Amino acid sequence: MWSIAKKDLKILFYSPIGYIVVSIFLLIFGVAIYIQAVTNHSIDFNTAYSTVAWYGMPIIVAVLTMKSFSEEKSKDTENLLFVNKKNIFSVVGGKILAVFIVILISILISLIDCFVLLQYGNINFGVLMTSIFGFLLLSLAYISFGVLISSLTESQVISAIITLVFLFLPIFFSFGQGFFSYLSLVDFYTSFSIGVISLQSIFVYISFTAACVILAILEIDRKRKLN
């Protein structure tokens, strides 16, 4: 798993893509903080992370995951990854881990602002850590979906568009209160952003992530058998 993640990380940071997505994360985070400082004369890092979750993560995840498997197919190197069935989980996990590490790097860099603010005020680190914990769970769910979509199509563009549309959909469309409400993943981040650990939200994120991973493994195994 780590060898796959390391390979993908090298690809991301040997090209501009890794630096671009980290910059997008920090730009949206910084703009959110600036707007708060100007309008409210105060800074709430939880609101900044929430802004990134709503408006930044769909773009970031779509860009980072669109090449997960589509690129392997276009380069005819997919079969080299799947010599046997036991490798499939490691490959899928490695792809997810690589993108997750990029998100984690972005969060760690953003925390520099927190330490700067400590010179001028106080921070409720309990609420902040809860918010970040929820953000990481949301990121895993988003990433697993993007990797799943990438495993279903040979086109990087189609993979990015489907991922982007699905993750942006809650902004423009209400899923209601029924079963489909669980597809609006970002809504379950609300409790974390105010410092409340919701067991329901944790269950939804873990279940969604696990379902996407299982479906990706089944799809890849199906194609492996066909080849």
Largest sheet: none
How would you sum up the global shape? globular
Q: Would you identify the regions where 5 or more consecutive residues have pLDDT less than 50?
A: none
Number of domains: 1
Structural class: mainly alpha
Count the DSSP helices.
Answer: 10
Global mean pLDDT: 85
Number of strands: 0
> CA-to-CA gap between the ends?
23 Å
Radius of gyration: 18 Å
Beta strand %: under 5%
Fraction of residues in helix: over 70%
Task: Give the H and E element order.
Answer: HHHHHHHHHH
Brief overview:
The chain is an all-alpha fold and 227 residues long.
What can you tell me about this protein's structure?
The chain has 227 residues and is mainly α. It has one domain. Helix content is 77%, strand content 0%. The chain contains 10 helices and no strands. It has helices spanning 2-13, 16-39, 45-65, 70-74, 78-81, 86-117, 125-152, 156-172, 190-193, 199-226. The radius of gyration is 18 Å and the shape is globular. The two termini are 23 Å apart. The mean pLDDT is 85.
